[in-house]
User: What shape does this take?
Amino acid sequence: PAALPSAPLGFTDVNLNSRNTYEVSRRRSAPEHLPHGGTAPAEPAPPPQEPAERARHRVGIAGSSFAEFFTRNFFTKRTKELKPAVQSAPGWKLFGKVPPRENLPKDSKIIQQEYEARTGRMYKPPPPSARRKNIEFEPLSTTALILEDRPANLPAKSVEEALRHRQEYDEMVAEAKKREIKEAHKRKKIMRERFKQEENIASAMVIWVNEILPNWEGMRATRRVRELWWQGLPPSVRGKVWSLAVGNELNITPELYEIFLSRAKERWKSFSETSSENDVEDAGASVADREASLELIKLDISRTFPSLYIFQKGGPYHDLLHSVLGAYTCYRPDVGYVQGMSFIAAVLILNLEEADAFIAFANLLNKPCQLAFFRVDHSMMLKYFAAFEVFFEENLPKLFLHFKSYSLTPDIYLIDWIFTLYSKSLPLDLACRVWDVFCRDGEEFLFRTGLGILRLYEDILLQMDFIHIAQFLTKLPEDITSEKLFSCIAAIQMQNSNKKWAQVFASLMKDNKEGDKNHSPAPKT
Amino acid sequence: MAQTVTSGTSPEGLPPSYTYKVVLLGSMSVGKSSLAYRYVRNDFRELLPTVGCSFFTQILQLDEATVKFEIWDTAGQEKYQSVCHLYYRDAQAALLVYDIANKQTLSRAKLWLEEMEKRFLPDEIVIALVGNKTDLAAEREVTTEEGEEFARTKGLLFMETSAKSNHQVNDVFMAIVQELLKREKEKASKPFLHGRSTVELRASGARMRCC
Assistant: This one.
């Protein structure tokens, strides 16, 4: 035991080290947090101390959860604040009895030695298996276990009692040490993994920026790029790659966006001027008008990712989201604003400049699957659900039968998932990873992801009845991790007797045309 | 009427148990999800807009019966109407929700009623008209009398609520339970007629489930 450093100092050092490591790793990956292309409008040049606005912008770009970001931020800040504090009294007040640093000599080791001297027993170190090498600190909470002598005014313990107490004490100390060592290992492992992750992102970013993006058309379909793509796009290039992959079939220019935005603004103005006259009893038309009007968007904006606090009224992205959605309803009055769109626009705004976000938004929604859903074209939606069920049965036959036995149809859970492209159903960072591959593989990947989720929770779902499955799938657990989900998605085969998604879907569409008379698209009632 | 009925055949001493599907309908942002959330979790918070449908369950242990509510909370936007029938079919009760601070939402609730009248026979479904957001009394656009009068002429249950301040939310659902149980009793008193309609309901594709 003498070879080990004194407990409190040893621990705090390591703790500090790990924090410093954290800071170092953050610095390393800092370039990828920098805004790409340009900065958001009205964003000040990055000052040394991050203002909230900028911090938020980074969250978005990083695509990681807001909470995580702040934890990280606090880490770095706290390191600086903590340093002086460490010298005087490290966070040891926890155990009350431990003396502050002035009396430092009486640390756990010494208490231990004192105890051993008093009892005349040598503390045996735990067997080597319990204590691995290279643990450069001594467990801490054992210092809280102080076996005091009985006060003099009380009768002495009996010999057996004293022996038993000693034994219990030893056991408790050994147990606590074991636990602490285990936890320390766990912490170190997590740190190592995070560090590795950051390294991976940093190196992937270099490849994306230096090799892939300059040769986009030539490289995008290569196996190497596709594999790298599957791993998740580095947040700094995410928006760029999404834009390139979604394309701009509609040939929208930033100028066109400005035109539709100013049109939207005019309508807002005229709406707010006439809104008082609008309160007529007449139902049908005026309600429909109101629905079509831009007013509805307002109701949803502040309800979009409320936990991020950036889209709500007064939040930095409130007006941006309003603008993008408003311009879209003027650009595509045939589609208009449909609930669920605000989430898609928000994810794009978090990763792209305003005009680019609009261009990607309009093009994304112009894809056949999105158009079918956002026009709420029920017969087309049924085709997508039917194709989904083909692959559902193929991949998860047991669960498929279970759902069938309850007449649980995919619309129950797929409507939410597909409308919002999982951005409302999955944690934001995970949703971004789904979007990455969705941009690579197209609509097929949305349905594959759905099957991945079903696969991930198959065992649980098999135990549930209709309403509980519906409840579960429309509100997925929050602790879902990307590793688990993506390994489940990878295990889903999008092949049905040699037919791929597109072929299965096409043949369903053909059936529809041939049997239009026989099979009304209306659902079973 | 209920999908799972063990009444009559239930072991002596145990009250019968019923499962009812309740659907929440109404314009967007009138507080459908908030009502369900208040009722089931007794809490109020900023909820995300519902896309498609979300689901809640609640079990009531009453003296006369055990009632299990399956609450289907639908998306409010009119554009979703073409998929809404997926949600309200086979429902035993419906809450038509409007916002007392927004007159247009009452008109929309009236349209919902027309839709329900087309799809259901009066004795197939219990409908309640619910004026939510009484906490916004200062911005009120629909008087209590107006809602009440409309509900009376159409034979609907009526209540004004506030999911935010927890005003009468529980009462709405209790009123629905009472009405549903009353109908169960009436049905039991003329078993032949209803025995048949139950069979038809099952055969026509109502969800099969175990008890």
Remarks:
- DSSP finds 24 helices and two strands in chain A.
